[in-house]
Every structure is written in C-alpha cells, then in structure tokens.
Amino acid sequence: MENYSRSEEQRRRFDRRLVRSLVDYTVVVGFLALVNWQTSPHTWWVAWVAAGWGLHILLLIVRRLTDCDEECDYR
Known about the structure:
about 80 residues, mainly alpha, 3 helices
C-alpha cells in the first residue's frame, strides 16, 4: 500500500467526488429531461434543475482551485 501525502490524498478524494457528481448530474438531469419531454414539452422546467445543480458543481471546482478547504477548514 502506497503512502500519499495529505494534500495528494485530499486531491484524489476530491477527484473521485467530482467524477461521481458529474456522473450523477448527467444521469439524473438526462432522466428528468426525458420525463419533462414526455409530460410537458412546452415548459422546460428541467433547465432550472440543471442550472442549480450545475452551479453547485461549479462552486465545488472553484473552491478546489482556490484551495479554500486546505487553508480554512470550515467543517
């Protein structure tokens, strides 16, 4: 078993979390788009879900790129 430094382990954990979030986002929003298309194609409410969840993922990426979690652990 390899020993990783704390920052590398945090990066690896973040990468796994980001990939899982992107896969979840794609599958759920795709399914909701199909439901939206089948039930009410004239009103695309799924765009609000995609925008809100996409904003959350974008904020995760920004927080990681600015290394805010490493400097000030808010949890």
